[in-house]
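For reproducibility, we list the full input for the magnesium ion complex.
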Amino acid sequence: MINLATFDNTYARLPERFYAKLPPTAVSDPKLIKLNETLADELGLDVAQLMSQGGLEVLAGNDLAEGSEPLSMAYAGQQFGNWVPQLGDGRAVLLGEVISPKLGRRDIQLKGSGPTPFSRMGDGRAWLGPVMREYIVSEAMAALDIPTTRALAAVSTGEDIVREEILPGAILTRVAKSHLRVGTFQYFAARRDADGLKTLADYAIERLYPDCKNSDQPYKDLLQSVVSAQAYLVARWMGVGFIHGVMNTDNVSIAGETIDYGPCAFMDDFHPDRVFSSIDQTGRYAFSNQPRIAHWNLVQFAQAILSLLGETQEDAVAVAQSVIDSFSSLYHEAWLTVFRSKLGLKTAEESDEDLINGLLKAMTNEGADFTLTFRALSSDGEKKLATQFQNRTDIDPWLEVWKDRLAREDVEETKRIALMEANNPLFIPRTHLIEQSIKDGLAGDFSTMERLVAAFSKPFEKQPENADLANAPKPEEQVRYTFCGT
Ligand code: AMP
Ligand code: MG
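The corresponding predicted structure, in tokenized form, follows.
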């Protein structure tokens, strides 16, 4: 047993019905694919131990670090709107919590670590592709400074996974502010377990939103905190063209982090209705639908904690409604802030919304690349922009309006460019690049993944040696569908 850190496992202290305690299932031949040394260091983990054979055994679930108390969490959720009363960690084990001097308390969880009492029909495992994807995309998200769970490590298990074909197994070590989900609250609400629900809400407040403790309406404030965090998060996704793909209530973090990178994608050519997930037939989780779905998910959260929001049903509904009603304006303001920065605007004008929408419309009409368009506007100038807009009918008049608007900002050109470059990434984890890295990984070559992770860790910096990774996919490289990949 190795010693990685001092664990302080508060979730394991909660009542037994909150989880199933069990260790991960051992695997035959674990190999390290990638270790996030920077994150390990920030977490205050013993990096040398983590990199040793003993560390690998922990990351593979073959051994436990000292102080670890492994458990799988219980939760429920609506999947594509359909209620499922029991989901839970079907292929994940929370190893425990560490307190990092830099980041605060963090969960460390293995994903793909074997069957649990919540596995239902699943095998409890993950294959290499989704593990690599989650590592690459979640770390890219963190580098974009968008709230997200993190990837500490990826290991291969040496075991075969049966999907539509036989694939190599892998395990991701995920780090999160907490793994509490809307679905965790729904689990207790659905069982009419008032004590469990209150215990969970108090736990969430203590751990994530301690300021609520000082309020005379702590649960209302908890709801408000969760609503605000989601409004901010989704606005940030919209600002980078990110489509989560499975915004089920069990994939909505109470901490406001992006969680569960399944069939997610960053858009290349912009269209507001873009959907990537092959199972999202109706476009429920389409790009432009994300704020509406976030609102819907928050209504489910409010519903779940309703009994805590007032003495009478009537009072509770009134409280819930008032908080839920704040989502639209919070989201709208966050969205405006995000896009104003992307357009180099520090001040606010009434007409900014039309300005932003005008550009998005021009991009839609021309199928302009989301990332490259904003980056070209930042600094690379009109020549680069021209490659995105062959037809100038919409963009030329828009550019005139934007330039007039910039003139009213009274900011030096260099400062405006700096602001825009800091808000418009050059490098995003494009799906065709991830797919290529998985193909190479399947052939035993992880150098593409290494290269992507390194490039995406500095998304705003020009990196001449990685210039090809900033490009939009060529038509033959374009990926239109992503798969859940469980
Ligand atoms: P996800 O789509 O990853 O959010 O997972 C939805 C639910 O299915 C969660 O309860 C997962 O734990 C469970 N699940 C997904 N894949 C597997 C698997 N291979 N084995 C067991 N449970 C799984
Ligand atoms: Mg999930």
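The first strand starts at residue 19 and ends at 21. The CA atoms of residues 116 and 190 lie 21 Å apart. Both points were considered when choosing residues for closer inspection.
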